[in-house]
Amino acid sequence: AALNQTLEERVEERTWALKCQNKKLQQLNKGLEEGLRESVRLLLTLVESSNPKLGGCMRACGSLARQMAATAGLDAETQVQVELAGQVCDIGLLGISEMILEKDESSLSPKEFDVYAQHPEIAALSLSSVSGLKAIGDLVAAHHENVDGTGFPHGLKGDDLSMGAKILAVAADFCMM
C-alpha cells in the first residue's frame, strides 16, 4: 500500500510538471505566432510607406480575405493565414517599375507581363525565408492562379488550389478593382 501511495504521488508530481511545461510551451508558441503576425505587419507598413496605394490595397485585401474565409466556415488558423497572406500578397511588386504597375494587366506588353508575373513567386520566396511564414507564402504564390487554369505563375487549376488560395485570389482581384 505504501509503495502504491508513493507511486501515485510520483505520477501526480510528473503530471503536474508536464502540465506546467505544456503551459509554458503554449505561451512560447503564442509568442512566436504573435511575432510572425508582427513581422507581416512590419512588411505591410514598409509597403505602405513606399507605395501608399499598394499598401492600402494589401491591407484591404487581408481584411476582406479573412471575412470571406470566416463566411466560408474555414477554421480560425486558416482565417488568420489568409488574412496575413492578403496583407503581403503583393510585396513582390516592390521592385517593379512604376510604369508597369500603373498599367492594367491586359495592356502590358509580353515582356512587361513576364516581369509582372514573377511577383507572386518573388513574394513567396521572400516569405519562405521565415519558416513560420511558409504556409502564407504558399497562399501568396497562388493568388493570381485561376480555377480554370488560366492564371499565373504556374497555371494551377481546380483542386490544385487550396480554398485559402481561391479566397485570396478573389479578394486580391476585388481590391485591385
Entry summary:
The chain is mainly α and 177 residues long.
Notes on the structure:
This protein has helices spanning 2-50, 52-71, 76-88, 98-101, 110-116, 119-128, 134-141, 163-176. The protein is an all-alpha fold. The mean pLDDT is 92.
Radius of gyration, whole Å: 22 Å
Strand tally is 0
Strand content: under 5%
Number of helices: 8
Termini separation (Å)? Answer: 76 Å
Query: Percent range for helical residues?
Result: over 70%
Question: What overall geometry do the principal axes of the alpha carbons give?
Answer: elongated
Major beta sheet, specifics?
Answer: none
Low-confidence stretches: none
Mean pLDDT, nearest integer? 92
Structural class: mainly alpha
SSE blueprint:
Elements: H1 2-50, H2 52-71, H3 76-88, H4 98-101, H5 110-116, H6 119-128, H7 134-141, H8 163-176
Helix pairs in contact: 1-2, 2-3, 2-8, 3-7, 3-8, 6-7
Keywords:
single chain; mainly alpha; 177 residues
